[in-house]
Amino acid sequence: MPGNQYNGNSSHNSGRVGRLLKIREQKRNKSAYSNELTDNHRGTEPCEYDLRAREGDSLNNSYIEQNLEGAITQGCEKPDARPLRQRLLVVANRLPVSAVRKGEDSWSLEMSAGGLVSALLGVKEFEARWIGWAGVNVPDEVGQKALTKALGEKRCIPVFLDEEIVHRYYNGYCNNILWPLFHYLGLPQEDRLATTRSFQSQFEAYKKANQMFADVVHQHYEEGDVVWCHDYHLMFLPKCLKERNNNMKVGWFLHTPFPSSEIHRTLPSRSDLLRSVLAADLVGFHTYDYARHFVSACTRILGLEGTPEGVEDQGRLTRVAAFPIGIDSDRFIKALELPKVQEHVNELKERFAGRKVMLGVDRLDMIKGIPQKLLAFEKFLEEYPYWCDKVVLLQIAVPTRTDVPEYQKLTSQVHEIVGRINGRFGTLTAVPIHHLVCFYFENSVGL
C-alpha cells in the first residue's frame, strides 16, 4: 500500500461542490463584466444601484466561498450559521471515574488518570459523554439509580455488568485471550479441551457484554451524535450499533497493537471479530503498521479487497487510518510548578545526591518486560561492581488485573527478583532498586 498512512478523508458530494464552483465562476464573470462597464464610464459617479449591486456581489461571493470551504472540508450545510458543537459519545470498557459506595444511595467519585482519559483531555471541540462500566457490581436498583445520578453530573453514563459477566468477559476473553494474542504471546495452552470449553463460554459473555453496551448507547443516542468505540473490549460493538441504526456514525479505535494476519488467524473467532469491526465507518490505530496488519487480516482471512483508504466489502468502504495518540503536556508542565511537587522533587534530589538515577514507570503487565529489566540491571551490577553504590533504579509499577492468575504470578516474580538483587548488592545505607507499587492508578488502567 503506498504512502505512510491511510487516507481517512471522507468522500464529498461532487454534485453540490460542482454547483458551488459554477456559481462562484458566474459571480466572478459578473464582477469582471461590472468592472468593464466601470472602465467604459470612467470619470462618472456610480449610481446608487451600482453600489448596492457591487456590495451584493461581494456578499454573495463571500457566501459562496464560505459554503464551498465548508462543503470541501466538513460538509457544513449552514455556512452562515454559528457552528454547533458536535456531541460525541465515547464508549469504553471503563469510565474515567472510580466509584466507591458510601451508603445505600450514596457514592463517592474520583477522576481516574488512565491513558484514554489523558489522551482525550485535549479534545475540546466536542460535547462529550462517556459510556462505560463503573468498575463495581451494583445489583440493587436503588444503588444503580444513585450511581447513575452521581455519574451524570460528570457527563458519564454507566453500564451495569454483574460479576459473572465481568469475570468471563473482562478477566476471561479480553485479558486471557485477546490481550496476549494482540501482543504476540499466543493463546493459553494448558488444557486444550478445557481451554476450548472456557473459550466458548468467555466468547459468549464477550458478545453479551458488547450488546449491553450497545443497549445503553441506543438509550442515550440522539440524531447527529458520533459514537466513538474504544479498544479490544468492544470489537463487537460497531456491529451491534449498526444493526439497530445503520445511519449512526460509528468509529472504533484500538489502543493496543494489532497482530499480523498469521497471528490473528490462530484466534477461533477471528472472522466474527473482523466483520464486527468493519461495521464501523472509521477504524483507527496507533501506527501505520497496525493499520496495515488489520487490512491484511481482512484480505487474507475474509477475502475482502484492501485499498489505500481501507477495506471494501461489496461496495461499502470502511476507512482505516493511523492516528498517533498523545497526552496533554500542559498538565504535566503545570504540575511541576505546584509547591508540593517542587518540595517532593527537592527531597528526592537530596535523597539520591551523588548517585545516578534510572526511572521506570510501567504497568505491572506481562508485556512491559519488568522482570527482564530487573535481570538486566542485576547483570550490569555483576559485571560492573564499581557502580553498585553509584546508581539506583527507581521502578514505579502500577498494578493491573489483580484477579487474573497470570498477573498474580507476575507480581510475585517481580517482588522475588527485587528482593534477591537488593539482598546481594544492598548495603546498610542504600539499596540498588526502589520498587514502588502505585495503587492510586489501579482503577484507571484498562481505560
TrEMBL record:
Q: Name one GO biological process term.
A: trehalose biosynthetic process
Could you say which EC number(s) this protein's record lists?
A: 2.4.1.15
Q: Which InterPro entries match?
A: Glyco_trans_20
Q: What's the short name of a Pfam family annotated to this entry?
A: Glyco_transf_20
Q: Does the keyword Calcium apply?
A: no
- Annotated Gene Ontology cellular component terms: cytosol
* Keywords on record: Glycosyltransferase, Transferase
- Keyword Membrane among UniProt keywords: no
Q: Name one GO molecular function term.
A: alpha,alpha-trehalose-phosphate synthase (UDP-forming) activity
The entry assigns this protein to a family as follows: In the C-terminal section; belongs to the trehalose phosphatase family. In the N-terminal section; belongs to the glycosyltransferase 20 family.
Q: What is this protein called?
A: alpha,alpha-trehalose-phosphate synthase (UDP-forming)
In its UniProt entry, the species of origin is given as: Salix purpurea
